[in-house]
Design brief:
The protein has 506 residues and is of the alpha/beta class. Strands 1, 2, 3, 4, 5 and 6 form a six-stranded mixed β-sheet that branches. A hairpin with a 2-residue loop joins strand 4 and strand 5. Helix 1 packs across helix 4, helix 12 packs antiparallel against helix 13 and helix 18 runs parallel beside helix 20.
């Protein structure tokens, strides 16, 4: 059943910005309340293996601990992205770390592999005092990693929350696969997928497929492989060997296999919804139903909530966008991409201060996140800050490692701030050198048309937009940007906007 917009819960205003000087979360002017007694953060385990490539083991163990403990309702577990900010700081002041993460307990440890043997050391402490609560050292075969994870999760949960119910113990002990080698490939894939680059994602898909070959019942491996395939046309990236249609076909096949193995796999339903979103003819109710299935199966699947919000943007379902994005931020409050995407909605709806707060937070969390600088450049055009807008656009281009679409972004800011000669030269160079073909994609047309509008060449902008044969919902959303306001009331733009309206748009 779809979400009824009129009954969406009103979530409290998000307080998102850089942390306070004392390390506590904002607002800084108020006393910080003591964290709940059952709250805990799992800090990233140190990799003590002679081979630095074994870092994926420490990362995988940490993230599995966060996921397992997060499934116990009696525990309040700090998010993965929050823990990432303190990677390598496990030897710091426990009280300061506890205040910064807003938790009463800290879990830290290390992993060392020597040949086929593992040594995992773990400690649980009370953050406020640094008092040792529980600790253990495991010397086992690397084939026992899944058992070690289950033992640690059970011991930590029991030490913090007390006696566990049988169902909770079973949940902590559950294994995604019974094949240790398959799990090893899966962890390697997770680390590569986290990098969100074309080469790393291609490697991740190979790792997941290797895991699935070793264990044909490993639903999560099939689902992650499907997601990796889908990311190529979504970004869009160029795959080293496969065309876009083949990538989508392989993703769909992997999703089908995951759901055949386990119809309750949240990630598989998430990817099914994402594939519907990437298609050109899916209705929003179909996309919505698949996303709702994903988050019903795992309400803490922050990736599914974020993608749900992104998909809803293209169907003018703004209430769903806000609801899904804020749910994602409840789970991962310091995820820069979610902050930036929600800021886009605030910008479109004219809430400039809210958009600024979100973008400033994203940049404070990750100063290398170029999308946040680009969005803030657009916002600053709307708020009459031309110099600051240009500075942000230049930073975005530099951080994007020469992304040609970021070149068009800078051209837009140059045009809007009066440097028309440089803006025109930049966009013409894009068509001549970077594009290499006279038939632009919808994404390229949307970027370039904003430049032409800023240059006052409305006819050229509209002709470029009208030449697009198919408007994917993920690109059509850009037609709502305030940078098109100068032509929005024209009959040509209104006809174009109506024609680009996807099936099922609100």
């Amino acid at each position: 059943m779809g979400i009824v917009l009129s009954t969406l819960p009103t979530l409290p205003s998000l307080q998102l910005s850089a942390q306070c000087p004392n390390g506590a979360p904002p607002p800084c002017s108020r006393p910080v309340a003591a964290p709940p007694r059952t709250s805990v953060a799992v800090l990233y385990f140190d990799n003590l293996s002679p081979d630095t490539a074994d870092a994926y083991l420490a990362e995988g163990l940490t993230e599995e601990m966060i996921a397992r403990l997060g499934g116990i309702g009696r525990l309040i577990v700090s998010s993965r992205t929050a823990a990432q900010r303190f990677r390598g700081r496990t030897g710091g002041d426990p009280a300061a770390l506890g205040r910064a993460l807003g938790v009463a307990h800290l879990v830290s440890g290390s992993v060392r592999r020597a040949g086929s043997q593992l040594r995992v050391t773990v400690e649980l402490v009370r953050a406020a005092t640094g008092t040792h609560v529980w600790g253990e050292q495991y010397d086992r075969s690397d084939a026992d990693l899944l058992a070690i994870e289950a033992d640690i999760a059970t011991a930590v949960a029991t030490a913090i929350a007390g006696r566990l119910l049988p169902g909770q113990r079973a949940s902590l002990a559950a294994r995604p696969t019974s094949n240790p080698r398959a799990y090893d490939f899966y962890l390697r894939g997770n680390r590569d997928l986290e990098m969100r680059s074309a080469p790393a994602t291609a490697r991740a898909v190979r790792e997941y497929e290797a895991a699935a070959r070793l264990d044909p019942t490993f639903a999560r491996a099939f689902a992650r492989a499907a997601f990796g395939y889908a990311l190529f046309p979504a970004f869009p990236w160029r795959h080293p060997t496969l065309p876009p249609d083949s990538l989508l076909a392989r993703s769909a096949a992997a999703v089908d296999r995951a759901l055949q193995v386990d119809s309750t796999c949240s990630d598989a339903w998430m990817v099914r919804a994402f594939l519907l979103y990437l298609s050109s003819d899916a209705r929003f109710d179909q996309i919505q139903a698949a996303f709702e299935r994903a988050v019903a199966l795992d309400p803490k699947n922050d990736e599914a909530w974020q993608l749900y919000g992104i998909a809803a943007r293209g169907f003018d379902a703004d209430s769903v966008v806000r609801y899904a994005m804020e749910r994602a931020l409840r789970l991962e409050p310091q995820r820069p991409v979610t902050l930036a995407r929600l800021a886009e909605l605030e910008w479109i709806q004219g809430r400039y201060e809210d958009a600024r707060r979100l973008l400033d937070s994203a940049i404070a969390i990750d100063p290398g996140f170029y999308l946040a600088y680009w969005n803030r450049a657009l916002l600053r055009l709307s708020t009459g800050e031309p110099s600051a807008a240009r500075s942000d656009a230049e930073i975005a281009l530099r951080l994007s490692a020469g992304d040609s679409l970021a070149e068009l972004g800078l051209a837009l800011v140059e045009a809007a701030t009066g440097d028309t000669a440089r803006a025109r030269a930049r966009v013409e160079r894009y068509w001549r050198v970077d594009r290499g073909t006279p038939h632009p994609s919808a994404l390229e047309a949307a970027y370039a048309a904003q430049v032409y509008v800023a240059l006052g060449e409305d006819g050229r902008a509209l002709a470029l937009l009208e030449g697009v044969r198919d408007w994917p919902s993920r690109v059509r959303y850009m037609l709502r940007f305030p940078t098109f306001d100068a032509v929005r009331a024209t009959p040509r733009f209104q006809r174009l906007f109506a024609a680009a309206r996807p099936p099922g748009a609100r």
